[in-house]
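DM between two lab members

TW: hey, do you still have the DUF4381 domain-containing protein entry open?
JB: yeah, one sec
JB: this one, 211 aa:
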Amino acid sequence: MSDAAPDAGAPGAVPPGAPETGAGAAPGAGVAVEAGADTTSASTSASGADGVVTPPESLVGLLDQLAQPVPPPPISMAPQTAGWAVAGVVLLILLALVAIRAARRRRANAYRRAALAALARAGDDPAAVAAILRRTALVAYPREQVAGLHGAAWLRFLDETAGAGAGGGLSDGPGAALIAAPYAPGPHAVPGLGAAAADWVRRHRAPEAVR
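TW: and the structure you got?
JB:
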């Protein structure tokens, strides 16, 4: 009995050249078919529902998604240790002492500023200059030391109390006119007398007990 060729149109017939899927098929053939189907499904999902391929995220986009760092707390300017606080208190005390000393010195020298202003108005008038020098000396020195001085003793006192750097003694220059000035008739100017008197007012050494 001769073998008959299978009918291609019969149900369950395998076309010539098609891989067998039945029991007689080669091992692994079904797995290869399933793997191909899975790859196709994954490609379709990556393409999106509308079939457009979505490009991967760029580096800039990924960086934008990073959380911003939390800023550090502000740095306090207050001293962090007790040593700095103590140093600050000591510095404030020193500044206060310097300010107090400067205020006392300015107040103690107020009579000098008043005498210089009066000498600027008096000019080189011997009578006016003599009166200003006498008042200034009575403020700076004890009254019993100044009130009884006249003539050459008065000029010598002015020379001895002149401070360092004074430009010459009053007795060696125009200051000699101070002796006869209170008794001279009429005003008459003595050149350089006002400048010499102002120099004494600025530089005379006042006793510490009187300041």
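TW: got it. Residues 30 and 201 are 125 Å apart (CA to CA). Residues 110-203 form one domain.
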